[in-house]
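Per your request, structure below.
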């Protein structure tokens, strides 16, 4: 944590849904080599509280799309140390999977480096390399889409994309403008719906009253295009919810949406 910047209260928010065992998951700290010999990245792996020796568990990578240097200036800590990512990773572990968070310098390259590290060292990490999923939210979603586009077909079991910016389609430039304004990476600039993998089930989670500029425009356009291309896509709409409802709206509707997100991943990670 950057002690020169006070911790922003937003950084302490945790997911509003809990499962038994979340607070007793074990955490393993790893380091991964960045590409081109550019140093290392810190990885936190959250394991189920009843992990069995020799068992290889499914895993969920929580993809980020903002440089940690910007996060530290804004929130006072790296993204992986925010309550949102800690609690979601704990939730994954309490569901029986390994939750993976990481530091980053270059979001696009570093997300791929972490996934490569997990695959290469899956056996020693207690991870089933054939049962991996990605999760991302908000401005982190374009980087998660890039991860999907640059992985072999069938190598990821599913992707959960929560209230996120997606692709600029049909001549739109809304994602590009939002990336410039907000500071997230947009590695899918110029990509089309045809570049999205045909065999990775996608869950789009929509906040009906999302207040982020253009966000639902880009999400709705992506969903229509995905349906037209017959992609394996599901859209879950949390009616009347605001952006970041999983952290800020402690309601039964929010908890039900989170339960459904977990069930979507459970079905695909354990089949």
């Amino acid at each position: 944590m950057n002690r020169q910047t006070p911790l922003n209260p937003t950084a302490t928010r945790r997911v509003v849904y809990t499962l038994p065992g979340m607070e007793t998951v074990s955490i393993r700290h790893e380091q991964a080599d960045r590409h081109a010999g550019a140093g290392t990245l810190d990885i936190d792996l959250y394991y189920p509280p009843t992990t069995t020796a020799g068992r290889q568990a499914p895993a969920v990578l929580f993809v980020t799309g903002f440089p940690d240097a910007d996060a530290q200036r804004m929130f006072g800590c790296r993204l992986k140390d925010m309550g949102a990512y800690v609690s979601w990773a704990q939730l994954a572990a309490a569901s029986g999977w390994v939750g993976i968070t990481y530091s980053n310098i270059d979001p696009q390259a570093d997300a791929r480096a972490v996934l490569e590290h997990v695959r290469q060292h899956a056996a020693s990490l207690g991870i089933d390399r054939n049962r991996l999923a990605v999760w991302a939210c908000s401005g982190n979603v374009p980087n998660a889409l890039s991860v999907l586009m640059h992985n072999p077909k069938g190598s990821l079991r599913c992707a959960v994309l929560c209230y996120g910016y997606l692709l600029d389609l049909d001549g739109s430039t809304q994602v590009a403008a939002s990336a410039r304004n907000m500071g997230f990476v947009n590695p899918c600039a110029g990509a089309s719906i045809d570049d999205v993998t045909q065999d990775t089930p996608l869950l789009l989670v929509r906040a009906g009253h999302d207040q982020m500029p253009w966000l639902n425009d880009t999400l709705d356009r992506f969903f229509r295009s995905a349906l037209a291309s017959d992609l394996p896509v599901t859209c879950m709409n949390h009616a009347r919810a605001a952006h970041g409802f999983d952290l800020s709206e402690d309601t039964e509707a929010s908890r039900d949406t989170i339960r459904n997100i977990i069930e979507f991943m459970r079905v695909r990670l354990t089949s």
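The two ends are 38 Å apart (CA to CA).

Regards,
D.
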